[in-house]
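Lab notebook, bench 4. We co-purified these components, and the gel suggests they stay together. Before we commit to crystallization screens, I want a quick structural picture of the whole thing.
Request: model the full complex, all chains together.
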Amino acid sequence: MMKEQVLYDKKFDVHYLNKYGSLMTLGNGYLGVRGALEEDYSEQNRGLYVAGIYNKANENETSELVNLPDLTGIKMEIDGELFSLMDGEILSYERRLHLAMGEIQREILWRSNSGARFKFLFQRFTAKHDLHLLATKLTVTSLDRSATLKIVTGIDAQQTNFGTQHLSVENVRVFNEEVMQGVYKTTESGHTIALTTACKCSLTSDVSFAAKNRRLLTTIKVDLSENIPFTLEKFGNVYTSLDQGQAGKDPATAGLKALKAHAPYGYDALLEKSALEWEKTWQQKRVKVTSKNEFDQLALDYAVFQIEGMTPAHDERFSVGAKGLTGEGYKGHVFWDAEMFILPFHLFTEPETAKKLLRYRYLNLQQAIAKAERNGYEGALFPWESALSGKEETPEFAAINIRTGTRQKVASAEAEHHIVADIAFSLVQYYENTLDEEFMKKEGLALLKETGRFWISRATEENGQLSIKNVIGPDEYTEHIDNNAYTNYMAYYNVKTALYFMEKYDDTDELLKMRGQDFLSRLYLPKPNANKIIPQDDTFLSKPEIDLSRYKVNQGSQGILLDYSRDEVNEMQILKQADVVMLLYLFPELFPSGVVSENLYYYEAHTIHDSSLSKAIHSIVAARCGEHDAAYRFFQEACLIDLGPNPYSSDEGLHAASLGAIWLVTVFGFANISIKNSRLTLNPTLPYNWSELAFPLHWQGATLNIKVTKEHIILTKVSGPEVMIEISGFEYVLSDRMEIAPLIRSKP
Amino acid sequence: MMKEQVLYDKKFDVHYLNKYGSLMTLGNGYLGVRGALEEDYSEQNRGLYVAGIYNKANENETSELVNLPDLTGIKMEIDGELFSLMDGEILSYERRLHLAMGEIQREILWRSNSGARFKFLFQRFTAKHDLHLLATKLTVTSLDRSATLKIVTGIDAQQTNFGTQHLSVENVRVFNEEVMQGVYKTTESGHTIALTTACKCSLTSDVSFAAKNRRLLTTIKVDLSENIPFTLEKFGNVYTSLDQGQAGKDPATAGLKALKAHAPYGYDALLEKSALEWEKTWQQKRVKVTSKNEFDQLALDYAVFQIEGMTPAHDERFSVGAKGLTGEGYKGHVFWDAEMFILPFHLFTEPETAKKLLRYRYLNLQQAIAKAERNGYEGALFPWESALSGKEETPEFAAINIRTGTRQKVASAEAEHHIVADIAFSLVQYYENTLDEEFMKKEGLALLKETGRFWISRATEENGQLSIKNVIGPDEYTEHIDNNAYTNYMAYYNVKTALYFMEKYDDTDELLKMRGQDFLSRLYLPKPNANKIIPQDDTFLSKPEIDLSRYKVNQGSQGILLDYSRDEVNEMQILKQADVVMLLYLFPELFPSGVVSENLYYYEAHTIHDSSLSKAIHSIVAARCGEHDAAYRFFQEACLIDLGPNPYSSDEGLHAASLGAIWLVTVFGFANISIKNSRLTLNPTLPYNWSELAFPLHWQGATLNIKVTKEHIILTKVSGPEVMIEISGFEYVLSDRMEIAPLIRSKP
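Here is the predicted assembly.
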């Protein structure tokens, strides 16, 4: 069945080159390869990224995920005529990302300017069974006559991050007139990267090699006979000095060895191995919906496919960047998106990966403590943006204002502190699911204590009450405000759970416990006002409102900033994204349902949704409020953030958090799971378009399959211990399989 | 008449993009702009270079002429369709480099995929009256209907030197919603470069600005009415911290000020000012031939045009690189080409420029003395390759051998020492022409003494005779040989002229004089053998010979190195270029004419002409030997080195020395001027195809016009003092105008 899930690109259009370049990214968490077409187009950006390989161009810049030398480019000439879809005539064109097996296929029927027709099939995958491997297969058939085909391909180190070069060339080699290898080094971080590749041709060819201007290329000349397909298979791999074990010590040797081992299998056999791994993944993690709108399933599969492709599940030293390994947006940095939008997917499908993402924070705890100290606080202040080192990587200044010549300080590193509590929230979520005492006792407790300690030191006293002043909440259109509801509640939860686990594990830091108790008893927590509205911060509700409809039409474009300065936006009731709504999503039982609805309506009306994190969260809260239509509409709109028609919105990479959020909507929204005191509850409310929703779920050591139909909830325990589940207010113990009816789709 | 001299590019062909990119370079000695088409093609390399702006990418690299941010790129969309000659249909296409006024025009009639026809006229020039200025004009006419045109252009700092980025972005600004400015800094050499530009539109347009990913761009949207042309004029300028005076102190302010001053004139008026300067140049410097083959005149005009464009006549701190300012080949480094192939053109047309090129060496004398010392010699050892600092810039190692992984040491910096004597030769040539005592007393004498001193220390004694061992002559296919004829004779001349000027200017360094006399009396100077052949070095004539015909067919490609290793080539009688022939060119009276002919025949038979410096020198010597056909054939082949049909031979820039050599052939070959004891002699031998050869000549303060026809020599003194000229053995004093006949075309 999975074989049918395909993302299509049905028309060659230069305007969409980089959108599909992002959408057709293939990755395995170790590396990501943008879906650039094999042949070059001036507008097209190629990209090969390896998790953790960052570099600073100079001391004024922050670390950037390095665009590595390219292995995907193939230049072809047929009887001297350059193959380009801008030239000649495209008789048919189709590119398909086959999600089931993780392969891209592109089929083209093309008439050259000379009038002869040629058929091309391009295939490509990055292996899931061997994270270093990528392979390409090209099949060319001359349909009308014999012809001479010239192919030029190899390793192209002219790639840059939009003009910034991060690599010096250490070595380029050709071994045995067959294997090409380039070894590169990042200029500042000093990582060594070895790229190794070789080509295999189906027909006798004239092959030569040359290195020039940072390119190591092979030229292959072959005579095509009419209707006899020619195939070229290209195997490549990437090893770096960041790799674990022997490979990390000598990436070049590892690359040569791996290439020798792989090449004899051939493209098809290697693809099969990789596809087998994908099959396991789909079995383990796929969310299935039966919807009147088939696109829903595709969007869900696509989200899972790309989250898998960008998560470095192999190595706890890295986490998931805001664009994963799909592009250079946000310089490959890791934000709160990793914990709040990506981690839950892993936690509920493969908890080991979630643990690694949390270990990433633990490994960087000292950097966070150092940042807190530099900023005059205690405990751990995690960086708003981080890369490999765990240091703060947020640029100190935003891009220059080209009209004034000034650069505004980026406030996020200084004030967007909620990330500290977000990490704490994820830790507790991890524990509640896994009951992993060992982790919690060591990493969890250390992180909770230091994040809790941060908040205690962060609060300031006024008239006996504690405030958290001068922060930025998730809504970045409102900067430097006091008592942000999201931040204060999250900080409260952070300290409360820190104290809980200190108690549980007999921690003896009595002073911290005492200070924590005091913090909890005196921290100001904004309450709903007379209109049931929870004030986003101390001043938000008193600010003027404007009609946002014209900006909502072009949401995602930040068009408001063309009409108003950032300072002006800050002084109005304008939201970039869910903020109080985010809080309501995380703590569904904090307020009565009436309050939740009122706040959803109120804040949504003031939200432009210029952030890709906004829609899905609104969908979840709407679903829980029984607003089926709105929930489903928000879900569909969230699915279009990358897959929608805007040709340029994903040029610099996919919206990782948004992909994670699509999964969140199905599980936390429509299936409406929530966790309270280590207990799983389920209150499904399917959209009208959906007749069935099914997904696997890891919960406290058990693997469950959960299926929700219009009439029933069917729970199956595949493995693991008995688990207790609360459904619509009733408690069930699941030991094998059970069917519950007819509780769902009741309005709250 | 000059208006008719046009270099045409009559067909859009992606294979020729970079050849024409080099050929259509516009320059003024301060800056050079490659003739890249305005719209992008993936195969196309843009280039903007400023004389003296070099940078080292890292400590292992040598300095490289920096590819600066681009001002020429223009992206156009018509009704959303990207304008590209790869797409749609080209109904007519013609690009013309108008040599007379230094302007490129490109006219295109294009049918978009939508079926509508559009006419484009692109114009571009770099100003000769203001070295910082470049301007573009674009005229678009929609022929069949109204249409929406979107233009994106500005300053693009994503340019690299084949993937190497030399610039950090310091600032990007938009002033008054009109003027864009980018300020950049070279990462190692620390030069500041300011690019300033603005656009002017003929119709009301919707204009916006944005900066992102190293690009500062304006987007202009305009509604085209049927048959009403729309014009966009774009004015740009470049100022750098290397500039003299106030501009060098604040290039950004200088750029803004200049743009304000220039823009109001408009493209046409500015072009006219520039063209006026070109007119003066052509009057001053043009060589005119009346040939049955019109291409001869075009090649000569083209050579003068490009030499003018690449010579930094404004600033003695720079010289002419092997590719001038036309591309990145040889990293923009300065070789002996500057003195031996470029300088004579200037010396005989505008001696002040020749003086500046010699001052470049003088300014770097201390670096040359330091290099000699490091290498264990006395005096001055000028670097084989140099850039701004005058330090040795020859890469220590050649490109890696991709099969062995080893890098061969580049021997030129260690052993290609003839450049020292080449500089000395040029000094004397300069003096003989200008009689510039002031220069000669100071710079000339200092240079001659230190270069002479170098040779004295460079020689080694064997049996009472002095040898110069382990050198490389101009022929780089023969490395590490002893007593290279070219080198020894040139060294002898160097020391001899040093002593002459020491004597003349009462220099008191008696020790140097004594050592010099001893050097002259004992230096081994290879004499013709029994077959009249001057041995190129001690062992050359005893080496085996092979049939070179198949390599001569593909001369210029270094194809021999595909069949033989460098070491193997070294052990055979195989020449890359003229070597003994070069010696015979420089010293026409050193040997009897019979010896000259024999050596020309012998060495030419062993020369592949893989160097672009070879053909023209053979032409000169053949002309002097009365070998009219061979001389003319060599001349024509030399003219094709850049202008010939090979699509890729000039990709990385024009062959500057070859362009200079084309001029040399006409003046030193066909007009056959030579200088002996400060006296000019003239022995013309026109090719059969030519009925007339005329050129201006500066000689000892006088400006002469020399016209050679089949029957007469007509000499006109335009200005300056009386001069003595020897023609075919008779002496004449030229005070006004004289006609001499019928001496020419006599075989020697």
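Confidence is low (pLDDT under 50) at residues 744-748 of chain A. Worth comparing against the SEC data before the next meeting. Chain A touches chain B through 43 residues (CB under 8 Å).
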